[in-house]
Design brief:
The complex is a heteropentamer of chains A (about 525), B (about 525), C (about 100), D (about 210) and E (about 500).
Chain A (H helix, E strand, L loop, with lengths): L3 E3 H4 L4 H18 L3 H24 L8 E10 L4 E7 L1 H22 L6 H20 L3 H10 L1 H11 L4 H36 L10 H6 L4 H18 L8 H8 L2 H9 L2 H13 L1 H27 L4 H22 L2 H32 L10 H4 L1 H15 L5 H16 L1 H25 L17 H19 L2 H33 L15
Parallel strand pairs in A: 1-2
Antiparallel strand pairs in A: 2-3
Helix pairs in contact in A: 2-3, 2-5, 3-4, 3-5, 4-5, 4-12, 4-16, 4-21, 4-22, 5-6, 5-7, 6-8, 7-8, 8-10, 8-11, 10-13, 10-14, 11-15, 12-16, 13-14, 14-15, 14-20, 14-22, 15-16, 15-19, 15-20, 16-18, 16-19, 16-21, 16-22, 18-20, 18-21, 19-20, 19-21
Chain D lengths: L1 H21 L3 H21 L3 H26 L12 H20 L12 H7 L1 H11 L2 H22 L4 H15 L17 H4 L5
Chain E lengths: L15 H19 L5 H25 L3 E3 L4 E3 L1 H24 L7 H20 L3 H19 L7 H32 L4 H6 L6 H18 L7 H8 L2 H26 L4 H24 L4 H22 L2 H32 L10 H4 L1 H15 L5 H15 L3 H26 L13 H19 L2 H10 L10
Helix pairs in contact in E: 1-2, 1-4, 2-3, 3-4, 3-10, 3-13, 3-18, 3-19, 4-5, 4-10, 5-6, 5-10, 6-8, 6-9, 8-10, 9-10, 9-12, 10-12, 10-13, 11-12, 11-17, 12-13, 12-16, 12-17, 13-15, 13-16, 13-18, 13-19, 15-17, 15-18, 16-18
The chains are: A mainly alpha (about 525), B mainly alpha (about 525), C mainly alpha (about 100), D mainly alpha (about 210), E mainly alpha (about 500).
Chain lengths: ~525, ~525, ~100, ~210, ~500
C-alpha cells in the first residue's frame, strides 16, 4: 500500500490527470459553445473519450499489487505540505472506470430526456464527473477534500435545476448534510496532519508538514487519537454514504433529483469508498474498536432500508430505501474487517454501481414513458415491452444477488466476511437478503407481470436503441462479474490484502512503536501536543 | 531603488492624492471624476501587487521602511513599514478600492464627493496597515471611520425594517442606538460612527497608557516593543483589554457587533465591500499590531478569552444571518460571523493558525467583497434587497449568478478558494489548544452554507416576478471587471497561496516568538 | 482700637448683601446697584489693607475700581435704555427672547 | 473718637445696604445706595485715605449715582408688585450659607502680608494726595493709561448704544437693511426683529 | 517718595503692537468722524491692513525673541505673551473679514464697529501681557467692555442682541465685583499684586488667600466660559451678532487662558496639589455638561456655544496636568480650536447673511446649495469633534497625553467618552447638510473676503492636523517660562 508506481514508468503520460480533468475541459468547451446540438455532440465525445482513456487503467493495471499505480506527484503548496498527488490502487481503480462508464451512459441517457438548459446540464454533469474522479484518485487529503467539497456545487445544481417536485428542499438538504459531514471530516484531516507533524518533527522526518496519504499512513498514532480521527472522518463519510441515522437526505434527493443524479448518487459509492480508502488504513485500531458499532449500524441500515422499501408505493422511493439497505451491506462487509468482507464490500460497491444505477436508469425509462413511478400505475408491462422486462429482470436479479450475477459474488463475500467476524452479524445479514428479494420481486410482479390494468400502459414503446445501448453494457457487466469475477478480484486483491494486513498487523506494530517510544522521545499521546511551529 | 524606498508612500497616498485632485475637479464632469478615481486607485493597487512580490520573506521583519520626523515633542514620527501581516491586507484594501470604484461607477448623485470619501476611506485603511507609529496607526484608524458616515448617510439606503415602520415618531428617536433592525440610513450611519468611535477611544486610552507607561516618550512601535515588564500585571492586563475591546469593536467581536449589520445594510455596495473587506480587519490587525506585539505575555494570558468570545461570534452571527430577509443583512451577519474564525486563529497563538488567520482576512475581503458587489448590483437593478420579493433573476443575469456561486463558495470556504486555505490553517492551528471551539467553528461553516444557499436560491432561482423583466446582466466591462478581479484573486491565491503563506509567516513568526519567549522569560523570572 | 478685622467684618457683610441683592432682585437697575455695593465692599477691603499693610497699592487699586465702575455704569445704563426703548421692561423675568 | 465714628459708619452702611436691596422703589434704592456710598467715604477718611474718600464722593455719589437716578427717572420706572425672584429664594439661602462659610474663612485669616514702606506717618508727611499721585504715575502708570483707553471706549460705546438715529440715518436704514440682508440681491430674508423669537425653542437644556 | 519713571523709549518697543493698535483705532475713529462720506468698506480695509501690519510686527517680535518687562514687571513681553497676542490679532483679523458682509445689516455706527472691535482687541493684547492682579482686572474689564457694546450692537433691530448685551453686562459686572473682592483678599494676604512678587513671597495657604484665589478664578472662569461659570455663554452667543459671537468664542477665551496659565503655572505653582482638583472638576463638568446639553440644541449658534463650553473643558484637561507639557498642549489646543471654531462661525455668518436663520434644520441640504460651505463646515465640526486628520484630533491627543503623564486617567477617560458624545451632535449637523434635502435650492454666493476666511480656516484646520510640527514647536517655545514645572 505504500509503494508507488509512477505513471511515467507505467504508461508514459499523465493518464490520471487526463482522465480526471477531461470532463472539466469538456464542460469549459461546452460553455464556450452556444449551440445545443453541438453541445450534445461534444458532450458525448468527451464522455466517450474519457471512458476510453480510463480503460488503460483497467487493462494495464499491475495485478495483485498493493502499490499505488499511475502515480503523479507534484508539489503544490509546499509551505503547508499540500501536493498534487494522484494515483490508483486496487481499491480505487475500478471506481474510476465505473465512473467514466456511468458518465458516458448518463450522457447517452440524458440526450433523449433533458431539453431545458442543456449546456448547463452538461457542464454540471461534467464538473461533477471530474470531482468524483478526483475523489477517487487523490492521494493527498487536501486534494481529496477539494474534490469532495466541490462536488457539492454541481450536485446542487443538478438537483435544483433539473430535479422534479420537492427539489428545492432536497437540494438544500443534500448540500447541507454533506457539507456538515465533510467539515467535520476536515477536523479529522487536521488531526491527522498535526499528528504527522508531531511525529515527523520528533523523528526529523521529511516532509514535516504533509497531507499526503502515503506520509500519513507512515505515522503511528495512539488509539485515542485514532478514535478521534475515526469519529471525525466517520461523520464525513457516514453522511455521504449514508449510514442509517444520517440517511434522511437520501430518499428526498433520489426522489426529487433528476435520474442522472440518482444514478450517480446511488451508483457511485463515495462514502463507503472513503471508509475503505481513509478510515480503515489511517485508523486501523480505532476501526477494530468501532467494529461492533459499525456492524450494528450496517445491520440496522440493511434491515431498516429493506423494511421501509417493502412498504413503498413509489418505485424511486423503493429504490432509495433499497440503496440504503445495500449500503448497509457494504458497511457490513467492510467493517467486518476480514479479508473476504473487505473484498466483498469493494466488489459489491462496484456491483451496486452497475445494478442500482441500472435500476435507476430503468426507472428513468419508465418515467419517460409514463411521467410517474407509482407502482400501482403500472402492471403488465411485460406484454408490451418484452425487452425492457427482460433486462429489468436481469438487473433485479443482480440486485437480489442471484447466483450467476455479480450481486451474488458481492453478497456472498460480504456475508462470508461477516460470519467470520461474528456469526450473529452474518445471520442477521442474511435476513436482509430475503427482505431484499421480497421487495424487488414483489415490485416486479406488480409492475411488469400481470394484466394491463391501466389503458395508459397499453401502447408503450419498448426499449429504444439508445436505451438498449445503456442496458446492454450493464447487463454484460453483470454477467461478466457474476460468472468470471477473477479479473476484478485480481485487481483488488493486492490492495485488500495489504489493507487486511495493516488492519491486523498494526495492532502489534502500534503496540511495538508505543513501547519503543514510551521511554524515549514520544510523550504519551494523551498529554496533547506541542506548539506546531 | 527609489521606487522601493517610497513604495508604501505611493500605495498610501495615491488614493489620497486622487481625492485631493477630485476636490478641484468640477462635479459635472462625471467621466473625468471616475477616471481620476480609477487611475489613482489603480496606481495603489498595482503598487501593492508589486509589494507582495517584492517583499523579501526570507528576511522577514519590517520592510520598505520610511521614517520622517513629525513631532519631536510628542515623540511621533511618520513611520511606514510593512511586515508579513500587513502585506496581504494592504493588497486587499487597494484591490477592493479599485474594484469598489467600478462597482460604484453608476453613482451620479454627487459622484465627486462620493469618490472623495471613498478614496479617503481606503487610503486611511491602508494607512493603518502600513503605520509603524502607534500614533499614526490610531490617526488613520479613526480617520477611516469618519468617511463612513457621509458615505452611508448620503449614498446609502434605508433598511427594510425602517421603511415598514409606521410609527414615524419612533423612527428617528434617539433610541436608534438600541434599535438593531430598523434604522434609517442616517441613523445607521450615526450608529456605526458612534460605536466605532467609542471603540476607538477605548483603544486610545490603552494606547495612551502604553505610551505613558513605558516612559520612552515615543510612539514608535518598534521602540515600544519589549517593555512589557515595566507594567504591573494588573496594568498591562488592563491595557491589553482596553486595546482588545477597543479594536475588537470594529472587528466586530460578538457583544460589540450590533452596529455592523445595520451599517452594512445601509451602505452602498462599494462601501460595504470596503467596510466588510478591509475596515473590519482593522480590528484584528490592530490587536495583532498593538496588543500582540507590545504585550506578548499578556496576550498569552488572555488568549483564552478571545477563543471563547469568537465562538459566540461565529454561531450567533451565523444563526441570525439565517433568519434575515435582507440580502445585505445576510452578508453583514455572515461577515461578523466569519470574523470569529480570524479571532479563533489569533487566539491559538501558533504559527499555522495565526498565518491562517491573516490569510483568512485577505480571503474574506475578497469573498465578502464579491458578495456585497453582487448584492449591490441586484439592488441597483431592482431597488429592493428583500429576498422573498426577489427570485428567478438567474435567467436575467447569468453572469452574476455564476459569480455569486463562486462568491458563495469562497465565503463558505470550499476548497479551491483562498478562504479554504485560511480556514484550514486556522482549524489546524486551533485544534490543539481549543478543540471544542474548533468543532463549533466547523459547524459554523455549515451554517454559512445554509444561509448563503438560502439567499442564493431566493435571488436567482425560482419564479421570477414579472416586475423584474427590465433587469439586465452585468455590463461587459465596467460591472464585470471588479468581480472578475476578485474572483481571479480568490481562485488564484486559493490554488497558489505559497507566496502569501511565506510572506505572512515571516510576519507572524517574530510576534509569536515574542509571545512564547515572553512566557518563558516570565516563567524563568518567577522561578528565579 | 479698631482693627483690620472690624473693617473686614463690615466689608464682608456688604459683599454678602450685594451678592444677595444680585441674586434676588428682579430689577436690573437694582441688580446693578447691588453690584456697586459689592465693588464698594472690595474697595473698603483694599483701603483697609492698604492702611494696615503700609502700602499704597490698595488705594490705587480702589481708585481704578471706581473708575471702572463709572465706565460700566455708563454703558450698562445705555444698554438698559436700549432695551427699554425696544421693549418696556427692566425686569430680569420679562426679558425672555433668549432663555434667561 | 474714631471708634465711635467707625461704629456709626458701620451701622449706617449696613442698614443702608439692607435697605438698598429691600426697597421696592428703585428711587428709594438709589437714595439708600447714596447713603451707603457716602458712609463708605467716611471709612476711607478713617483709614487716612482722603483722596479716595474725595473720589468716592465725587465720582461715585456725585456722578454714578446721579446717572442711575437719572435713568430711573428717565425711564419712569414704577414700583413693582413682585420684587424678588421666587425661584431664587432657595438659592439665596444656600448662597448665604456659603457666604457665611467664606466670611468665617476670610475673617480668621491672618493677613500677614509683606508690609510696605508707606506707613501712615510717611504718607501724611508727604501728603496723601501727593503720595497717591506719585505712586500712580510712576509704578502704576500702565493701569492708568489703560483706564484712559477704557474710558475712551466707554464714551464711544455709550454713544453707539444710546444715541437715537437722526432722520438721515433712518433713511439710510430703510435703504440698507434689505440690501444688507441679502448681498446677492435676492429676496430679503431678514425677519422683523420682534418676530425672531425662534431661539426660544432652542433654549432647551438651559438651567 | 520720589517720582521715578523707569521706562525708557527703547523699552516701549515692547509695547509696539499695543501702540500700533491704539493708533489704528484712533485713526479709524478720526477718519470716520472727519470724512462722513468715506465708504465703510474702505475703513474696514484700512483696519484689516493695519491689523495685518500688527500681525507682522508680532511675528517679528516672536522671531527676534524680543522679551522684557515694563512698569515694575506689570507688563511683560515674552514668547508666551506674543503667542496669545498673535492669536488675538489673528482672530480679530478673521472676524473683521467675516464681518464685512454682516455689517451691512447695521445702519448706524458702522465705523465705530471696527473701533470697538479694535478696542476690545487692545484690551486683550494687554491681557496677554498682564502680569499683576490690577492690570489683569483692568484689562479684563477693558476687553469685556468692548464686548458689551459689540454684543448689543444690533440695538433695537434685534432685541435679542441688546438683551444678550444686557445679560452679558450684568453677569460680567457681577463676576468682576467678585474678582475685585478676591484681588483685595489676595492683596491683604500677601501685600502685593504683582505675579512674580506673589510667587516670590511664598505665601502660605490661608483662608483669605484661598477665598481670594477662588474669587479670582470665578472671574477668569467666567471669561473662559467653563462650568460652573458658563451660564452666559449660550444666550450671549445666540443673541450677539454672529461675527461677534465668533470673536467672543475665541479671543477673550485665549486671553483669559493666558492669564490663567500665568496665575496657575507661575504664581501659584506651589499649590498645584490643591488647585489641580479644581481644574479637574471644572474640566470634567465642562466637557460633560457642554456636550450633553449641546445634543438638544436646534440653533447652530447655541450648539457651538455649548460645544465651546465642552471644548474649554478639554482644554482645562491640559491645564490640570499642570506641567510644561500641559501648558504646551493648552496652547496648541487653543490654536486648533481657534481655526476650527472661527471657520465654523464663518460658515454660520455666511449662511445667516443669506437666509437670516441660524436654525440647524435650515442647514438641510447645504451640500447641494454650496458644496464648499458644507465641506468646510464638516471639516470644522469634525475637527472640533477630534477626528483625524484634522487639527482638533492632534489637540485632543496632545492634551490627553499631557494629562496621562500626570496620571489623570479618570479625567482622560471622561474626555474620551465625551469625544464620542460630541461626535453625535456634530454629526447631526453634518447629516443635515449632506443627507437632508434643501427646502430652498438657491446656491449660496460667497464674497471674496468670506471665501478667503473659509479657505484660510479650512487649510489651517487640515494643515494643523497633518503637519502640526511647527505649531507644536511654537507652542513649546512659547511656554518656556513654565520650564520650571516638573514633568516632561
Amino acid at each position: 500500500m505504500m509503494q508507488e508506481m509512477f505513471a511515467a514508468q507505467q504508461i508514459g503520460f499523465s493518464l490520471l490527470t487526463l482522465v480526471t480533468f477531461l470532463p472539466l475541459a469538456g464542460a469549459v468547451l461546452i460553455w464556450a459553445i452556444r449551440d445545443t446540438g453541438w453541445a450534445w455532440r461534444i458532450g458525448l465525445g468527451v464522455a466517450a473519450a474519457d471512458f476510453l482513456l480510463s480503460l488503460p487503467l483497467f487493462f494495464m493495471f499491475t495485478l495483485d499489487s498493493a502499490a499505488m499505480q499511475f502515480v503523479e506527484h507534484y508539489s503544490w503548496i509546499p509551505s503547508l505540505g499540500i501536493s498534487y498527488h494522484v494515483g490508483v490502487d486496487g481499491i480505487s481503480m475500478l471506481f474510476v472506470v465505473l465512473t467514466t462508464m456511468l458518465g458516458l451512459l448518463i450522457v447517452v441517457y440524458s440526450q433523449g430526456v433533458i431539453t431545458g438548459r442543456v449546456r448547463g446540464y452538461l457542464m454540471a454533469l461534467f464538473a461533477l464527473q471530474t470531482t468524483m474522479l478526483g475523489v477517487f484518485v487523490s492521494l493527498d487529503l487536501v486534494l481529496f477534500f477539494l474534490f469532495w467539497e466541490l462536488m457539492l456545487i454541481p450536485s446542487y445544481f443538478m438537483i435544483r435545476l433539473w430535479g422534479g417536485e420537492g427539489r428545492e428542499y432536497a437540494s438544500i438538504k443534500y448540500v447541507l448534510y454533506t457539507l456538515l459531514g465533510s467539515v467535520l471530516m476536515l477536523v479529522g484531516i487536521v488531526i491527522l496532519y498535526l499528528q504527522h507533524y508531531r511525529f515527523a518533527s520528533i523523528h526529523h522526518l521529511s516532509p514535516a508538514l504533509s497531507f499526503d496519504l502515503m506520509d500519513l499512513l507512515r505515522t503511528p498514532m495512539a488509539l485515542d487519537v485514532q478514535m478521534l480521527v475515526f469519529v471525525f472522518l466517520f461523520f464525513g463519510f457516514a453522511f455521504k454514504t449514508p449510514i442509517v441515522p444520517f440517511h434522511t437526505w437520501m430518499p428526498d434527493v433520489l426522489l426529487a433529483g433528476p435520474i442522472a443524479m440518482s444514478v450517480i448518487l446511488a451508483g457511485i459509492k463515495l462514502g463507503t469508498f472513503g471508509f475503505v480508502r481513509f478510515s480503515l488504513p489511517l485508523a486501523p485500531d480505532a476501526s477494530r474498536a468501532a467494529l461492533p458499532v459499525m456492524m450494528v449500524l450496517g445491520l440496522i441500515g440493511i434491515l431498516y432500508g429493506a423494511y421501509i422499501a417493502l412498504m413503498q408505493a413509489d418505485f424511486r422511493k423503493l429504490l432509495a430505501y433499497s440503496s440504503i439497505s445495500h449500503l448497509g451491506y457494504v458497511a457490513l462487509g467492510i467493517f467486518a474487517l476480514t479479508y473476504q468482507g473487505i473484498q466483498g464490500g469493494l466488489i459489491q460497491m462496484i456491483n451496486l454501481g452497475i445494478t442500482t444505477a441500472g435500476l435507476f436508469f430503468f426507472a428513468g425509462f419508465l418515467w419517460n414513458r409514463r411521467q410517474t413511478l407509482t407502482i400501482a400505475e403500472f402492471g403488465g408491462l411485460a406484454k408490451g415491452m418484452p425487452l425492457l422486462a427482460t433486462f429489468f429482470l436481469i438487473i433485479i436479479f443482480s440486485s437480489i444477488g442471484l447466483p450467476g450475477t455479480n450481486g451474488f459474488i458481492g453478497e456472498f463475500l460480504i456475508l462470508f466476511g461477516a460470519f467470520k467476524a461474528h456469526w450473529v452479524y452474518g445471520a442477521s445479514g442474511v435476513l436482509g437478503v430475503i427482505l431484499g428479494a421480497a421487495y424487488l420481486l414483489w415490485f416486479y410482479e406488480r409492475a411488469i407481470f400481470g394484466k394491463v390494468t391501466k389503458p395508459a400502459n397499453e401502447n408503450l414503446r419498448d426499449l429504444s436503441p439508445r436505451e438498449l445501448a445503456i442496458a446492454l453494457p450493464l447487463v454484460a457487466l453483470i454477467f461478466w462479474i457474476g460468472v468470471y469475477p477473477s479479473p476484478f478480484l485480481h485487481r483488488i486483491n493486492g490492495s485488500v490484502d495489504a489493507l487486511y494486513m495493516r488492519l491486523n498487523r498494526t495492532a502489534t506494530m502500534a503496540a511495538g512503536l508505543q513501547t519503543e517510544a514510551a521511554g524515549a522521545v514520544v510523550p504519551p499521546a494523551t498529554t496533547g501536543y506541542e506548539e506546531p511551529r | 531603488m527609489t521606487l522601493d524606498q517610497h513604495l508604501l508612500s505611493i500605495i498610501l497616498f495615491a488614493p489620497f492624492a486622487g481625492a485631493i485632485i477630485l476636490i478641484f475637479v468640477s462635479g459635472e464632469r462625471l467621466t473625468l471624476v471616475r477616471t481620476i478615481a480609477a487611475v489613482s486607485s489603480f496606481i495603489s493597487f498595482a503598487a501593492s501587487v508589486y509589494l507582495l512580490y517584492a517583499f523579501d520573506y526570507g528576511r522577514g521583519g519590517f520592510q520598505f521602511l520610511e521614517q520622517y520626523e513629525w513631532s519631536k515633542d510628542l515623540g511621533i514620527s511618520f513611520f511606514l513599514g510593512v511586515d508579513g501581516v500587513s502585506v496581504p491586507l494592504v493588497l486587499a484594501s487597494s484591490l477592493l478600492l479599485f474594484a469598489g470604484i467600478f462597482v460604484s461607477w453608476h453613482i451620479e448623485d454627487r459622484a465627486r464627493e462620493f469618490y472623495i470619501f471613498l478614496l479617503i476611506l481606503a487610503s486611511a485603511t491602508i494607512g493603518v496597515y502600513v503605520s509603524l507609529d502607534l500614533f499614526f496607526l490610531y490617526f488613520f484608524y479613526e480617520m477611516s471611520v469618519l468617511p463612513m458616515y457621509p458615505l452611508l448617510g448620503v449614498w446609502g439606503s434605508h433598511t427594510k425594517g425602517y421603511l415598514e415602520m409606521k410609527d414615524t415618531a419612533k423612527r428617528d428617536s434617539l433610541a436608534f442606538i438600541f434599535n438593531f433592525a430598523s434604522n434609517s440610513k442616517e441613523y445607521a450611519a450615526m450608529k456605526l460612527t458612534l460605536f466605532l468611535s467609542a471603540g476607538a477611544v477605548v483603544a486610545l486610552l490603552g494606547i495612551l497608557l502604553t505610551y505613558v507607561g513605558t516612559g520612552l516618550h515615543t510612539f514608535n512601535l518598534i521602540e515600544l516593543q519589549g517593555h512589557e515588564q515595566q507594567f504591573t500585571p494588573f496594568l498591562r492586563s488592563a491595557i491589553w483589554l482596553l486595546l482588545f475591546f477597543g479594536f475588537a469593536s470594529i472587528a466586530p467581536l460578538w457583544p460589540m457587533h450590533s452596529w455592523s449589520p445595520v451599517g452594512h445594510a445601509a451602505a452602498p455596495a462599494a462601501v460595504s465591500m470596503l467596510h466588510a473587506g478591509v475596515l473590519m480587519k482593522l480590528g484584528h490587525f490592530s490587536i495583532i499590531r498593538v496588543g500582540y506585539w507590545l504585550f506578548p505575555q499578556t496576550t498569552k494570558e488572555w488568549a483564552g478569552l478571545i477563543a471563547i468570545l469568537c465562538v459566540f461570534s461565529i454561531i450567533y452571527g451565523g444563526l441570525v444571518a439565517f433568519f434575515q430577509r435582507d440580502t445585505k443583512y445576510v452578508i453583514g451577519y455572515s461577515s461578523s460571523s466569519h470574523m470569529g474564525y480570524i479571532f479563533l486563529g489569533m487566539a491559538a497563538l501558533n504559527m499555522i493558525s495565526m498565518t491562517g488567520a491573516v490569510l483568512y482576512m485577505f480571503a474574506h475581503a475578497l469573498a465578502t467583497g464579491m458578495l456585497f458587489a453582487m448584492a449591490g448590483f441586484v439592488y441597483d437593478q431592482t431597488h429592493t434587497r428583500d429576498i422573498p420579493s426577489l427570485g428567478g433573476l438567474g435567467r436575467k443575469m447569468p453572469f452574476i449568478m455564476g459569480a455569486f456561486v463562486i462568491g458563495l463558495m469562497a465565503s463558505v470556504g470550499l476548497p479551491g478558494t483562498v478562504n479554504f486555505i485560511g480556514e484550514l490553517m486556522v482549524l489546524a492551528g486551533s485544534w490543539e489548544p481549543y478543540p471544542v471551539q474548533t468543532v463549533i467553528a466547523v459547524v459554523g461553516i455549515a451554517i454559512t452554507l445554509a444561509y448563503l444557499m438560502r439567499m442564493f436560491m431566493g435571488l436567482f432561482l425560482g419564479e421570477m416576478d414579472p416586475k423584474w423583466a427590465h433587469v439586465h446582466d452585468a455590463s461587459p466591462i465596467i460591472d464585470r471587471l471588479p468581480l472578475l478581479i476578485m474572483i481571479f484573486g480568490s481562485l488564484y491565491f486559493g490554488l497558489f497561496p505559497t507566496q502569501f503563506i511565506h510572506v505572512i509567516s515571516s510576519g507572524v513568526q517574530p510576534i509569536l516568538e515574542q509571545i512564547h519567549s515572553a512566557g518563558a522569560v516570565a516563567a524563568a523570572r518567577g522561578g528565579g | 482700637m479698631i482693627t483690620l478685622t472690624h473693617y473686614l467684618v463690615v466689608s464682608t457683610i456688604l459683599f454678602a448683601l450685594g451678592l444677595l441683592g444680585v441674586l434676588i432682585r428682579r430689577n436690573f437697575i437694582i441688580v446693578l446697584m447691588s453690584v456697586e455695593m459689592m465693588l464698594n465692599a472690595a474697595n473698603l477691603n483694599l483701603v483697609a489693607f492698604s492702611y494696615y499693610l503700609h502700602s499704597l497699592t490698595g488705594q490705587i487699586v480702589a481708585l481704578f475700581v471706581i473708575a471702572i465702575a463709572a465706565g460700566e455704569a455708563a454703558v450698562g445704563l445705555a444698554i438698559i435704555v436700549v432695551i427699554f426703548r425696544g421693549k418696556i421692561a427692566t425686569n430680569v423675568d420679562q426679558i425672555n427672547l433668549l432663555k434667561w | 473718637m474714631s471708634v465711635v465714628f467707625f461704629y456709626y459708619f458701620a451701622a449706617v452702611t449696613i442698614i443702608s445696604g439692607v435697605l438698598t436691596i429691600t426697597f421696592r422703589s428703585p428711587v428709594h434704592c438709589g437714595v439708600a445706595l447714596v447713603t451707603l456710598l457716602l458712609h463708605i467715604a467716611g471709612f476711607f477718611i478713617l483709614l487716612n485715605a482722603e483722596f479716595i474718600a474725595a473720589v468716592q464722593v465725587i465720582v461715585y455719589a456725585g456722578a454714578i449715582l446721579v446717572l442711575y437716578l437719572f435713568v430711573i427717572m428717565l425711564l419712569n420706572l414704577k414700583t413693582e408688585e413682585r420684587v424678588f425672584h421666587r425661584r431664587y429664594a432657595v438659592v439665596s439661602l444656600l448662597m448665604l450659607g456659603i457666604v457665611g462659610q467664606v466670611a468665617v474663612l476670610v475673617l480668621r485669616s491672618p493677613y500677614a502680608g509683606v508690609p510696605g514702606t508707606a506707613t501712615p506717618e510717611l504718607v501724611l508727611a508727604v501728603g496723601q494726595t501727593r503720595a497717591i499721585g506719585i505712586t500712580m504715575f510712576s509704578d502704576y502708570l500702565l493701569p492708568f493709561e489703560l483706564i484712559g483707553l477704557y474710558l475712551l471706549a466707554a464714551i464711544i460705546g455709550a454713544i453707539v448704544l444710546a444715541k437715537t438715529p437722526g432722520m438721515q440715518e433712518r433713511k439710510a436704514q430703510l435703504e440698507t437693511v434689505p440690501a444688507g440682508a441679502s448681498p446677492d440681491g435676492n429676496a430679503a430674508a431678514v425677519e422683523p426683529a420682534g418676530v425672531t423669537a425662534r431661539g426660544d425653542e432652542g433654549g432647551r437644556g438651559h438651567r | 517718595m520720589e517720582f521715578t519713571l523707569s521706562v525708557s523709549a527703547a523699552d516701549l518697543l515692547l509695547m509696539l503692537p499695543e501702540f500700533l493698535l491704539t493708533g489704528l483705532a484712533c485713526l479709524v475713529l478720526v477718519l470716520d468722524f472727519s470724512f462722513p462720506k468715506i465708504s465703510k468698506a474702505t475703513l474696514a480695509w484700512i483696519t484689516a491692513a493695519g491689523l495685518s501690519g500688527i500681525l507682522v510686527s508680532l511675528v517679528w517680535m516672536f522671531a527676534s525673541g524680543l522679551q522684557g518687562a515694563l512698569f515694575k514687571g506689570m507688563f511683560v513681553l515674552d514668547a508666551f505673551a506674543v503667542f496669545f497676542k498673535i492669536i488675538v490679532v489673528f482672530s480679530t483679523l478673521i472676524v473683521l473679514l467675516a464681518s464685512l458682509d454682516y455689517i451691512k445689516r447695521i445702519y448706524l455706527f458702522r465705523g465705530e464697529y471696527y473701533v470697538m472691535i479694535m478696542l476690545a482687541a487692545l484690551g486683550m493684547l494687554f491681557m496677554a501681557s498682564a502680569n499683576d492682579l490690577l492690570s489683569m482686572f483692568i484689562t479684563i474689564e477693558f476687553s469685556t467692555f468692548g464686548f458689551y457694546v459689540l454684543v448689543a450692537y444690533l440695538r433695537e433691530d434685534d432685541l435679542r442682541s441688546s438683551e444678550a448685551g444686557l445679560k452679558f453686562f450684568v453677569l460680567s459686572v457681577f463676576t468682576a465685583a467678585i474678582m475685585v473682592f478676591g484681588i483685595s483678599l489676595i492683596y491683604g494676604e500677601t501685600g502685593t499684586i504683582i505675579f512674580p512678587e506673589l510667587a516670590a513671597s511664598h505665601p502660605v495657604l490661608t483662608g483669605g488667600l484661598v477665598i481670594g484665589f477662588l474669587c479670582v478664578l470665578v472671574g477668569l472662569g467666567f471669561k473662559i466660559g467653563a462650568v460652573p461659570f458658563h451660564n452666559w455663554i449660550p444666550d450671549i452667543y445666540q443673541g450677539a451678532p454672529t461675527p461677534i459671537t465668533a470673536y467672543l468664542s475665541i479671543a477673550p477665551k485665549a486671553a483669559a487662558i493666558a492669564i490663567v496659565l500665568r496665575i496657575f503655572f507661575s504664581t501659584f505653582a506651589e499649590f498645584k496639589p490643591e488647585w489641580v482638583w479644581l481644574l479637574i472638576g471644572m474640566a470634567a463638568l465642562s466637557m460633560t455638561y457642554g456636550n450633553i446639553v449641546a445634543i438638544a440644541q436646534k440653533d447652530i449658534k447655541r450648539l457651538l456655544a455649548y460645544s465651546g463650553i465642552a471644548q474649554m473643558g478639554n482644554l482645562l484637561i491640559g491645564l490640570a496636568a499642570g506641567t510644561k507639557m500641559g501648558g504646551d498642549s493648552v496652547l496648541f489646543y487653543l490654536v486648533t480650536y481657534l481655526v476650527a471654531n472661527l471657520g465654523a462661525f464663518a460658515v454660520v455668518i455666511i449662511f445667516s447673511n443669506l437666509t437670516g436663520s441660524d436654525q440647524i434644520d435650515d442647514y438641510s441640504g447645504l451640500s447641494r446649495r454650496s458644496p464648499l460651505l458644507a465641506a468646510a463646515m464638516m471639516v470644522f465640526l469634525l475637527s472640533l469633534a477630534g477626528v483625524p486628520p484634522l487639527a482638533g484630533f492632534i489637540g485632543k491627543i496632545y492634551v490627553f497625553t499631557a494629562a496621562m503623564h500626570e496620571g489623570l486617567i479618570a479625567l482622560v477617560i471622561i474626555g474620551l467618552i465625551n469625544i464620542v458624545i460630541s461626535m453625535y451632535y456634530y454629526l447631526v449637523v453634518v447629516k443635515k447638510m449632506y443627507i437632508g434635502q434643501p427646502t430652498d435650492h438657491r446656491p449660496i454666493p460667497l464674497s471674496v473676503p468670506m471665501k478667503a476666511v473659509v479657505y484660510a480656516t479650512v487649510i489651517g484646520t487640515v494643515a494643523l492636523g497633518v503637519y502640526p510640527k511647527p505649531f507644536i514647536e511654537w507652542a513649546v517655545a512659547s511656554t518656556s517660562l513654565f520650564s520650571h514645572l516638573i514633568g516632561p
